[in-house]
Known about the structure:
The chain is of the alpha/beta class.
Amino acid sequence: xxNNKCSCGSKSREIAEMDYAAEIKRLKKEKNAxxxxxxxxxxxxxxVADFVGDSLALSEQAACTDADIIVxxxxxxMGETAKVLSPDKKVLLPDPNAGCSLAESCPAKExxxxxxxxxxxxxxxxxxxxxxxxxxxxxxxxxxxxLKIVQSVPAEKGIVFAPDRNLGDYIKxxxxxxxxxxxxxxxxxxxxxxxxxxxxxxxQHPGAKVLSHPECKAPVLLIxxxxxxxxxxxxFTLTDDSREYIIVTESxxxxxxxxxxxxxxxxxxxxxxxxxxxxxxEYMKMVSLEKIYNCLRDESNEIEIPENIRSLAEGSIRKMxxxxx
Length: 325
Ligand code: 13P
Ligand code: SF4
């Protein structure tokens, strides 16, 4: 019934969604619950959310909501972040299998061994990590504030940066900071973009600006007109006066971009092995209205974190929120 495979334009998922949307609205009121959704989730999921945003904005929302229940329409590490910041609230994940290849590329045990090699370094970890890795971290960051967080550290201090090697490499290039050691992790969605495919698209749309997420590889970033987090890319389209854009990040953001800029044209950059022309994170697309409804109705898939890990992780996330004000 609901086609949740692709976000590049299929209409078929409008079928049978009205009832779920209405039921979710009713349950939210009855249970004093909020739904927080990442920009990469399906359009219909974004439509039932009380707040849609990037990783940073969602963490901020999770820290300040007065709801009793948070349904996190996103992936596992995002639900964990919400639980770390709101330990007294029930945080529910519509699909507990919605993981993240980037978070998985940095297992806590191996990361602890890596960190031990650099005892004098400060550890900065991208929010796309497990709670155990956050507990080993001094300051968290997201792609929105990574540059600011790194720049807040005295120039002579060494930094261990994890887990995304592309974001880390980008920050090293922008800041010229050589004393940053990078963990070798990556996001399988952002790594799949290719310069060749983008240049092919540029030939067909010579006036289009290329907007890329810093989780993409360096050659892609080097041919881009603008590099930024999901929220920064969206903001760019609101103030820039071009008519066409090639979007080099997960395709879910196109929904928000098109809604905010109805007269502009947004072209998803295809990954190297594309069959449908867009690039979806299959984990983000696991979140459906039906799963949101079920977990809210049953209060199931609750995130639980041992207090000793939670309190350590909280320190690194709160430091980030403080520094990104
Ligand atoms: P941002 O939300 O910080 O842009 O991160 C993108 C991402 O990959 C989330 O999974
Ligand atoms: Fe993780 Fe990449 Fe999916 Fe974001 S897009 S949730 S980093 S796998």
